[in-house]
Design goal:
single chain; 75 residues; alpha+beta; five-stranded antiparallel β-sheet; 2 helices
Length: 75
Amino acid sequence: MHVIAVESTTLATIAYDEARKLLQLEFRSRAIYQYFGVPVAMYQALLGAPSKGSYFNQFIRGRFPYSLASQGVGG
């Protein structure tokens, strides 16, 4: 998976595994979540979104199964 650092107040990095349709998001809190069954078009739209946090909240959060991969640190 290729990890891309992004400019966002919500997200720090975005990674995607096209073969598994796995979207990995690292939040500014350093928590890392993996979302399953995410189409490549949605990953590409997230990368191109002017507000990645808004795109995530509108189109990804609550719509795909996910797991917490890493808790992160701090508040």
